[in-house]
Amino acid sequence: MTVSDQDLPSSTSRPQIVSSVTEDIAENPGKGDGALEEQALVGQKTLSGDQLIKEMTKYPVPKGSGDVVMIQSDTGDPGTVDALSTELESADLLGEQRKVSTPPLSPPSIWTFAKMKEFKTKMSKVKNSRLVVKRGEVVTVRVPTHPDGKRLFWEFATDNYDIGFGVYFDWTPVTSTAVTVHVSESSDEDEDDEEDGEGGIEGLVPIGDVEMGSKSSLRNRYGEIMPVYRRDSHRDVQAGCHDYPGEGIYLLKFDNSYSLLRNKTLYYHVYYTS
Known about the structure:
By secondary structure, the chain is an alpha+beta fold. It has helices spanning 20-27, 33-41, 49-56, 86-93, 116-124, 189-196; strands spanning 68-72, 81-85, 109-113, 130-133, 138-144, 151-158, 163-170, 180-184, 204-207, 215-218, 222-231, 237-243, 249-255, 264-273. The strands form 4 sheets. A 5-stranded antiparallel β-sheet has the order 3-12-6-14-4, covered by helices on one side. Strands 8-5-13-7-11 form a 5-stranded antiparallel β-sheet, covered by helices on one side. It has a two-stranded antiparallel ribbon with strand order 1-2.
């Protein structure tokens, strides 16, 4: 029994697709390879920009450092894509907060002069310019920037023994121009003073040896102008100045925390110029 092709079920037969390009080649074999390349493109669909993005999101995005993530462009052209590093994506696109660092602070100018006796005599007559820094104590003189000032100056000396000294800057807005003095029993207690609201060098946690110069761990709003070093303030008057970096409070730190036996008599003078 002979069954014609028309009687065969469509499900059992493999349809043969013959494009117009193939037929054209059969009739015109001289067209060559160019026509075959056109045939290879027949049946492929062209994706728009939006469809391309959807297709790309089906596959996992690499998350290693330095890998590239493709995102749609902000130019409004749906066919354009931008390449961003995964680090930028994690910081910006995923909404993670960035830590805001304080502006860099310029170094101070420092010098010494030898008129110890004259300086101590003068400061002894000025109210609140002479104090005793007890053994194991840290004294912080807080000097707000003044609206009429452009530069801060400091001068200090001690009797018989040296003392540690450093300068820091607090970017807190100034609400009063009054100079205040805060005392803590050790360097480590300065951080506790901030938490308790009792003053001190707020947020300042010295790390290291005062004799070698301490490096400090500062919270976001604090900057280091000059680290704490032991100064020969019993031999020469120590002096320095610093240009205002902006509005804030200077922290002049006199550190006697390294001394287990000796109190230090301190004479100091701070002022601003325009």
